[in-house]
Amino acid sequence: MHLNEIEFSEATPIEGYGPGFFRIAGQAVEAPVVVTATGAQSWGGYEDTDLLMKMAGEIDVIFVGTGGETAHIPASLRDQLEEAGLGVEAMNSPAACRTYNVLLSEGRRVAVALMPV
What we know:
Strand order of the largest sheet: 5-4-8-6-7
Helix content: 10-25%
Order of helices and strands: EEEEEHEHEHE
Oligomer: single chain
Distance between the termini: 30 Å
Structural class: alpha/beta
């Protein structure tokens, strides 16, 4: 098997995660967080739609990490994001971190909203 090292240039990848935290740009974040190519911001959870809606037009898809297990996100949140033209994919937080990093390395316009594991 041949492995290629991923290059992120100036973007902000997720470096790791564990019980109750994410490691982003060398810092441990112990709360829900939204990460884009330009950085990380604390997130108030599913009810905090303003932060996500501000990304309309700047990104194409938001991966929503639902914690340790895959769960449905509130229908109202999904509907609001989709009406704004944002794609939404819910998955467990570890999968959301990995998917975000891969697409970020490809230069795609993505963001991830994460609930702690």
